[in-house]
C-alpha cells in the first residue's frame, strides 16, 4: 500500500541556501515578524561564506560602478547588522581592521594618497615599492566569526534551519509555492533562491545565468603589529585577523564546481604576499582553502522577482557577498513586502538578461 503524502510544513517564507545572503535575509524577515524556513544542502555558512576574505570593499576599483549604491547602503547598515547578530547569538563578530591600502595607478582618483605616516602607523612591515597606495576607510571581518554567530542568531530569532536538506523541485501556484525536498514537503507564501553558485538551475524555476568562480586562499603568520589594515595589490590581497594570522587571496578560476585547493596555488599566493610583507611566514602545517563565488555575466547581483509567482532571486554576489549581505536583506525584504526599496533594484533585476 502506498504511504500517504505527508502534510507540508508551512511558513511565510522559504529560502534555499544558508550562506550569508540567505541567512541575513532570513534574519531580516524574522525581524519583520514573518515565519521563515531556510533549507541548506550541506551545512550553514559552509561554502563561499566561510571561504571569503571578509573585506567590506565598498570602493574596490574592480567593482562595477552600478554596484556602488548597494555597497554604500550595506556599509551604512553594517554596525546595526552586526549588533543584531551579536545580541541574538551571544557571539562577537568584531571588525578586524578599519582601513585598506588600495594599490592605484597614476591618475586614479580613489580615497586619498597614503602618506609615509599612514604606512608607518598601519603597515610598518610593508615594502611599498614599486606600488603606490590610496588609503580607504574600509573595514574587514573574519568570516569564521560570522559562521559561528549568524546561524545561531537566526535560530534564536525563531527561524527554522534545515541543514543536509536538498531542494529537489519547486511548484509555484497562484497563492503559494510548494517545495519537494529530501526531507519533507514545504509550502510557503514566498520562495527565495539564495543558493549562490548553485543558483543556475532548479526544476520548476526559471534559470538565471550564474556560474561558479573558484577562489583559493592561504593563511600566513605575521607579528600583529606589522600590519593593521587590509592591503589590495595586483594579484593579491592581505587581511590581518589581529592575532597573527594573515589571510591571503585570491584566485579567479572558472573551473566549474571544482573546490579542491591546490598547494602550488597557495605557494604562489604566499610568495606574492611576502613581496609586500617579508616577515609573513607560512603556517605549519600550511593552510589553503577554496570556495565558489556566484558570478553573473555583468558581475552584478541578481535581486528581484522570478517569472514564477511568489518566487524571488537573491544570488550572483560574486566577490562581495560578505559586504552586500545587510543591504540585500533590507532591499529584498522591502520588495517582497511591496515597500519602496532603499536603492533601485533595476540594475540588479533578474529580467535584465
Q: Overview of this structure, please?
A:
- This protein has 353 residues and is an alpha/beta fold.
- It contains seven helices and 18 strands.
- It has helices spanning 20-31, 48-51, 68-89, 116-122, 143-156, 263-274, 321-336; strands at 9-16, 36-39, 95-97, 100-103, 112-113, 133-136, 140-141, 160-162, 167-172, 177-181, 186-193, 211-221, 230-233, 236-240, 245-249, 281-295, 302-305, 311-315.
- The strands form three sheets. Strands 1, 2, 8, 9, 10, 11, 17 and 18 form an eight-stranded mixed sheet that branches. Strands 5-6-4-13-14-15-12-16 form an eight-stranded mixed sheet.
- Strand 10 (177-181) and strand 11 (186-193) form a beta hairpin.
- Helix 1 packs parallel to helix 7, helix 3 packs across helix 5 and helix 3 packs across helix 7.
- The N and C termini lie far apart (48 Å).
- The mean pLDDT is 95.
